[in-house]
Description:
There is one protein chain. With about 160 residues, the chain is of the alpha+beta class. About 35% of the residues lie in helices and about 20% in strands. It is globular.
Amino acid sequence: MTKTKHAQLTEVYQAKPQQKSIKMHSNVILTFNTDMNEFDDFQEVFNLNLRVSPMEKSSFDFLNRELFPRIVEKCSTLSRDPKDLIKISTASDWDLFSQTTGLPALCDLCHPCKWFFGYDRLDLDFWERNLMVRFGFGLNASFYELFTTQLLHGGK
């Protein structure tokens, strides 16, 4: 009895060892454009473990799927509004990403692993503008207003 091509392919696929995702540690600093009186600090610092699959398509897609939605969740947990975000800074184990996927890490692509936001910033790149649209980051934040206020108050 001969097997159909579909049955043969199904057997081959099922016989392959399933590749597991790896946890990549990431330190995240969120900087907000909020009043010091409303919160104790302008920043929130926390750690995340991001799941890296050997089948990742790019470091950009990986972060869009793994990091940014979790930042929105963390903002909710911290009672912070993502619309008040002016900067996301990260430090991650990008060597682990490269070893797991065989792809270049974000820092290998000359990206600083920081994203800036603000509705009146003219220097944002496409990715930053896209994150503002997709996740609402920085929609309430005015870079120029913050800068002017700091200048008026002697950098405080």
